[in-house]
Amino acid sequence: MKNILLYGIWGVYNYGCEAIVRGTVNSLKTMFPEAKITYASFDVEDDKERLKGCDIEIIERPFHNSLIKRIIRKLLSYVNIDYPVYIDSFDLVNDYDLIVSIGGDMYTISSTGYYPYSLMKFGDVAIQKGKKYILWGCSIGPFDNHPKILKKFQQHLKKVSLIVSREHETLEYLKKIGVSKNVLFAPDPAYNVATDNVKTESNRPKISVIGINLSPLSTLYFTDNLEDAITKQAKAISDIIEEFKCKVILLPHVLSKDIKDDDYRYMLKIKDVVSEEHGKDVEIVENDPGFIGIKEHIKKCDVVVAARMHCAVNAVATHTPAIFLSYSKKSLGMANLIYKNTNFVIDLEEFNNSSTIIAKIREISEIDKLDFYSKINELRNTSYLSEVKEHILMPPQKVPTKN
């Protein structure tokens, strides 16, 4: 593979996406040391700054945004007519041998019913042109509540050159919907980033500092009233501080221009409420340190409680136990890999129940640390790359172009 394109994500302002890019590049360079890796970005300058030290070329991702076509699509949707409006430039695939779709949950349906039909078309075009198109580090589905969309995913996923899933729940779901021959498991790319950056043990009490990540995006899966959610989540944090006589560090993991996706501005409001009663016992990470930089703050924590799945992964990768605040099935899969059960996954809504979250924090502080560290080291093992490489190097499947 001489030329590889990373494609799909909307930007690495999301620290999880930054981790996926960095970890994917590390893995691809291990498999194909001489390959040139290119990442197509919607915000080249910002992503270049955030991806310093990453061995990739960053190019602008073409974006077609036709207002007229989107209006037509919306109107036709009222009479159940599908009129796709593709945002991607399909000619881009011509310059690459391998196209890698990155973004852990690109192949899901959002809370608003959106699914990546343009990205799927991009992959179909690549395959039709004899290119390899793979999904990397992904969680997929479920689509069962959307039968028409499910059928489109089934048709597309069966043609994809290779699906590399980051958790076993996705493997089981794909098997259930008839997709299994082109599927492998590999841990999330985030485990392959800054692998030596882990915390050292201290002699302080087990629960002195708790890291907490909350996000407006995940909260919107449960309520449209963010102000009410802020009040309830701030109350839960206050109860945690009072119960454990601890300090809380708020950990933004997405810093977005979209206020409904921006952890920092959302948690800053929570901090202001909690500070009224607890002052300096609560702080928030400033200065946008990125996926690697925020590890230094995570390492100060004894436990992390996270709504953003990659914030939890970032924590456990530094040897800090994490509780997953779940709003989708991907958290269940990740927790199963780490703890061999889902005991430390709770619904995000349950965070507001102080007794529930306090009990979970106390429970996770008692886990067997040696077993926990062993499992994280196992997830960092890159022996799976030989099998992935073998599949990538298989001759591409010829897919006839429709007349």
From TrEMBL:
Molecular function in Gene Ontology: transferase activity
Record keyword Metal-binding present: no
This protein's record includes keyword Acetylation: no
InterPro entries registered for this protein in UniProt: Polysacch_pyruvyl_Trfase
Domain Polysaccharide pyruvyl transferase: 14-328
Keywords: Transferase
Any Pfam family hit: PS_pyruv_trans
Name of protein: Polysaccharide pyruvyl transferase family protein
Lineage: Bacteria, Pseudomonadati, Bacteroidota, Flavobacteriia, Flavobacteriales
